[in-house]
Amino acid sequence: MSRPRWMKLARDLVLARGRMAMLVTALATSIFAVALMLSTFTVMTREMNVNYVGTNPASAFIEVDHVDEALLDAVRRQPNIADAEATSWVNGRVEVAPDQWVPLLLFVVPDFANARISTVSPEAGAFPPPENTILVERAVLTLLDTIQLGDSLTVQMPNGTTQPIAISGTVFDPSLAPAWQEQTVYGYITPATLAAFGEDTTLRILKITVRDQPDSVSAIETTVEQLTGWLTAQGRVVDEIRIPPPLRHPHQSQMNTVMMVFLAFSVLSLILSAVLTATMIGGLLAQQIRQIGIMKAIGARSSQIAALYLALVMGLGLIAAVIGILPGMWAARGFSSVVAQLLNLNVYSYAVPLWVYGALLLMAILLPLLVALRPIRRATRVTVRATLSDYGTTAAFGSSRFENWLSRIQGINSSVLLAFRNTFRRRSRLILSLSLLGAAGGMFMTGLNTSSAWQTYINIAAVDRHYDLEVRLNAPQPMEQLAALLSGVEGVAEVESWNLIPAAVARPNGLDIVRTYPDGGHGSFTLRSAPSDSTFINTPMLSGRWLQAEDTHRVVLNQSAFVLFSEAAVGSTITLLIEGQPVTLEIVGVLRQILSPAAAYVTPETFAAAAQIQPTLTNAVRVAMTASDPELVAAVTQRIEQTLGQAGISVRVAVSEVLLDNATSGHVFVFIVALLLIAVVMAVVGLLGLTSSMSTSVIERTREFGIMRSIGARSRTVLLNVISEGVMIGLMSYVLAFAVSLPLSFGMGAYLGEMSFRSPLPLMIAPLGLGLWLAILILGSTAASAVPARQAANLTVRETLAYV
Amino acid sequence: MAQMHPAPSPLIQLRGLTKTYWTGAKVFTALDGIDLTIDQGEFTAIVGRSGSGKSTLINMITGIDEPTSGEVMVASTPVHQLNQEQLAVWRGKNVGIVFQFFQLLPTLTIAENLILPMDFCNTYPVRQRRERALHLLEKVGIADQADKLPADLSGGQQQRAAIARALANNPPLLVADEPTGNLDSQTTDAVMQLFAGLTAEGKTVVMVTHERDLAHFFTRFITLADGRIVANEIGVPA
Ligand SMILES: Nc1ncnc2c1ncn2[C@@H]1O[C@H](COP(=O)(O)OP(=O)(O)O)[C@@H](O)[C@H]1O
Ligand SMILES: [Mg+2]
User: Fold this and answer.
1) Which of A151, A201, A768, A797 could form a disulfide with A191 if both were Cys (CB 3.0 to 4.6 A apart)?
2) More confident residue, A409 or A765
3) Minimum-distance CB partner of A4 among B64, B97, B119
């Protein structure tokens, strides 16, 4: 071997194989997590975009009195219009069990075969649908798990007509939030089929795509403004305009943010592994300091020796990369497909872009290298004299200001001082173990805290609501009559009128523009009348006060509505568009309302004036029942449906609160599982760090153990001694983990809450998280220190005392 | 036979060499204005009581330690002016160091230990290195131990290996700090013979020792006391 320095490195590695294996495991686990998250992130961002853009989503949906071929032709010739098509949206209901209804959103498609804007693609069965049949979005079959392709759906139209209609096929529509999330059946029919229900088949929605800058909201707005001007000049009546965030799937920013959080945490774990590497290499260097001195004495330059150890770290990173990256990417396939299923998307390609391989490889190699640079430079710069003379070795203690201060303290008994010194000599190792375990525990607790906060919030939402059912009608009815009718239904305790009408934020140009997707989910905004003496809701105010009976032209916004108005505050006025007419109201309060879409509450008088309806009429009632268990709610709902049906009153939708719950909890669960997964990765790294720290500690204390043994300590005593030190460190990290979990849970709750409820989740401390992590720590740290403890216990007295 | 080399040229020149250490709050002078010239081919002993500054002195010559003031010239190289990196390169090629505790790298075989200086200093063609190592081992009489680990060798064998390693890059100067301190008298004698043989080949050897009965090997005795040269005698090798 003519390059013996590499030989030396290789043999030293073999000697330290246990520690090296731990290092590689820690690095590989972390790089696995980073590979998993980064690959999923890139694949899903791309696939989500491919799915969504693949439908050629409309830049805007403009509601016009009616859209025909002539109009479409003319619109297509307008400036910056790429294409135009007509459609209609109908809100009906589907009966999923006797008298149990789920909302139905029907898309009326004049020409399935030649549709070009916001298209759907056939999945199974017929396409286009034969007359008098319906196509449903594929996720609908998951929502309605008893119904299959070929079955019949009982559909009720806004006009009250109720008819069975056969499902002739399924389609895939990636532009909609999944049916199970929205608890809505999405159906697609032809105008002829709609006609068979006796509904008006006039197409009212003009879908357009723009030619230039299809990704810019302001460009789209300008085009739409021009187009609206032109339409109005043609004598058309323009109502609501929907401009969804251009070329972005409804869940795009949500998913991006969540994935970023995961990615950040996995990178953090990689950084901690890198720090662990640096510390272990530092330990190796400390052991070899004399050998380094000898090599320098016989002509080695510092740079040559540094190169050896840098190569070692690079090698470890490379091995970790080889072990971690591909499995991480492989796992990313699984994770991506779960995320895709959750969001009802197709993954057309799991291919990970090349740059990701490069980035991962660089991270795996460079991060440990960067962190190890300092200890390596320090060790290899040491002078020959320092390593060889008896004077050099004492430099370790007393080198920092703190240590100097420590040694100047008077009156401390020397053995206490010694213990102190030992602790602080080990402090960088201690700090590392603590920060690894602390971070892992913090994440773990955060996962469960967030889950518990979520649950609590949903409970608060339930507590704030004292009604069990909301019934929305297709046409307003006299309230007194309705109340009398419903009060007679068995199980109904109380009925209140809670009128509603869609609202939009008035814009300076007078256009009624909302930022909503066709499913109307996010961003829907309603004006509601609230009985001023209502017993149906709690009114926890974020600011201002709740409505009073004499409040006219005054409004209370819930938090979701409040954010729609920039610069709004209690006391300022806002302008809403109701049925195309501006209505100006003064804000008197902001209501904390969880799990509710944006709503503005006014007194019944103000509502009647704004909506231009008779104050005695109502189009929505809320019903409190004698009990709130799901079975009773279902039974009473059924009886209410029957009663209204017999009275000839057509119900648009009946929403029970049970339904709402299911709709939202789905993603949070996935989120929490991923959070826990990263916590596990960190825990692995943390426990490996603890093991390494304990091994080093055992090596350092070999002599001490020898003396213990020689004065009669049994193996068991030594074993216990080491294990209890490990468990002690574990328990210390527990405190740290708790401290870390508080701001982390707060931030995570704020983020998740804002995302889902427009209000931060409360900071919750989950006893389950605390308990589980404690158990994991005790077991884990016992296991982590058991190996070094056995080493220590098995040393013979002669070995320990001979050890230098 | 007073001199082996009739026209000696100075290899080592120390001028006004002083070394002070800070111990706690006090200044301790380990070397105090040393002036010394050692010629090429000499076999010099540095003697004195423990703590008199012997190790400090030879550490100045090898550049392992730097003087507080004064000059160290070795074959016209101003050693005291070199930085750590320059020192490493210079030392690797010009000085062979032999330690009291042998200091062979434990995970390398004897042959590999010998090749290591050639590797670091890139002195001999890669293919010739092992051959040279074996040649040197033969010279010190342990060629048969080439592929063993240091731990498998006796103390005397290890010290021979260490001497062979010091010769790896064929330096003109060998410096040894109590190389026989850990050896029995018989082995000591053999190791001293080896050094004497090297001086005969023209190497210059500076050795710290406190074993007076080795006197007959040296051509010069420098006696130190409290950091000063108290005697500089020419010896008569037997
Ligand atoms: N790094 C140091 N710090 C303080 N004092 C030192 C240092 N190195 C050597 N000394 C002191 O210098 C004196 C000479 O040491 P040394 O040259 O090692 O003596 P020896 O002749 O035994 O080899 C001794 O008294 C020693 O205590
Ligand atoms: Mg000495």
Assistant:
1) A201
2) A765
3) B119
